[in-house]
Amino acid sequence: xxxxxxxxxxxxxxxxxxxxxxxxxxxxxxxxxxxxxxxxxxxxxxxxxxxxxxxxxxxxxxxxxxxxxxxxxxxxxxxxxxxxxxxxxxxxxxxxxxxxxxxxxxxxxxxxxxxxxxxxxxxxxxxxxxxxxxxxxxxxxxxxxxxxxxxxxxxxxxxxxxxxxxxxxxxxxxxxxxxxxxxxxxxxxxxxxxxxxxxxxxxxxxxxxxxxxxxxxxxxxxxxxxxxxxxxxxxxxxxxxxxxxxxxxxxxxxxxxxxxxxxxxxxxxxxxxxxxxxxxxxxxx
Amino acid sequence: xxxxxxxxxxxxxxxxxxxxxxxxxxxxxxxxxxxxxxxxxxxxxxxxxxxxxxxxxxxxxxxxxxxxxxxxxxxxxxxxxxxxxxxxxxxxxxxxxxxxxxxxxxxxxxxxxxxxxxxxxxxxxxxxxxxxxxxxxxxxxxxxxxxxxxxxxxxxxxxxxxxxxxxxxxxxxxxxxxxxxxxxxxxxxxxxxxxxxxxxxxxxxxxxxxxxxxxxxxxxxxxxxxxxxxxxxxxxxxxxxxxxxxxxxxxxxxxxxxxxxxxxxxxxxxxxxxxxxxxxxxxxxxxxxxxx
Lengths: 285, 292
Description:
A: mainly alpha, MetI-like fold, globular, B: alpha/beta, 12 helices, 10 strands, 36% helix, 22% strand
């Protein structure tokens, strides 16, 4: 065989073309994100000021006003939803990966995947039936529960998948030292999988942070500061929704600014937790 | 009563020098034949009619043998002959496979380790294990890896932990190489060092028996010879059972050798006898390299 056969040039050209295609696709994936960010900054940045972060919304026609209550409300809802959803999701994932029998696991996995596909507004209805009706009123609790429902299957599946990636040899090593299984899981397996689990939790939080539908008839929204979790609470997505469908230009501008803040919040959330979650000996990827 | 006392005594008795001065000196050849019941000292492990099943598949077929205390017993045989299963049944590690089932009787210094009242966790604390592939915990430093077994079993005293770190690393012949960087990540060590770290980790919980599943098969010749030196050193204080694919290793490092084939224990005796004048034709064929 000739080393410099004519095939060589054809193969080179093919390789070049395929490489180009891959790069193009990668760019196409990133491009919408860049465009969205650009557009949001263009439309929303001008309405951002100190009052936007600290103030309450003003009535229609009055310029200015802020979304401080909605920003705090979203953070509260996220914290409550995580407080409910993360323990259930993580513990469920641990059960699936470390304890459960094959048949049972197949069923739980199947149902978790089905739940993952349930439209978020349905979760809002579930929370409405479970909390709003018995408590006779919209509340932060109801909103948080609806968001937690969405988080649980997400966190459960990622936790399980990440734990399955921890090599069996670590479990064997720990058990061979005479450690009980629960200590092996809590002190050896979970720390090894820590970063993956945290990433899964973050993704779930990021997903629910922007959910509007499940909050419509649970958290409802509130024009003032929420002082009682059993009362309606404001949330950024709700505020954005209400403001963007309103006929007032002022409010539309506020909605753009709110969307920018929401995107920035999820971005900061994932960035900061990622930095803090770096394992001592594990590189950050 | 006596039987249940024995392990306690071995645990509290000073290990090393005076205790077994008589048995440490002679080489394997001069040791009494322990194949039968003629061994004068009580065996560390006595295995009777052990059969192990995974599902419907029988991996071990009624194996009986006695493993002497403070000696190295090598398990040899071709792949799939049940060596590893035998080793794992000695500290109940095979139970990690849900379909496994055991028949027969294994006694650790007289105590039935499969008795209903015995927890596998306790058995594994007394019968430690080193695996084929080194597996130090990646989230921990070198020092933390050594004493993780003690720490997670409730030892909090820093002085005790520090002492045990040094002692275990010295026994594993690793102390001089790592004493200045105990806080470095364990995975920064070389393959051979990682394996010695795993040995130190297993020794730190002060087991009575140490099981080794092909501990040097993934290592280069130099690291392998270090592990073998270590095994010869450790036999002064520990009962060691080692599974190996390497015939020379069995010949060099062990006092007794058991040859397994297709789930049967074919022959068991002093290593010198197995390698120079085996009684069974199959053993001879295997150790001379005619098959396997």
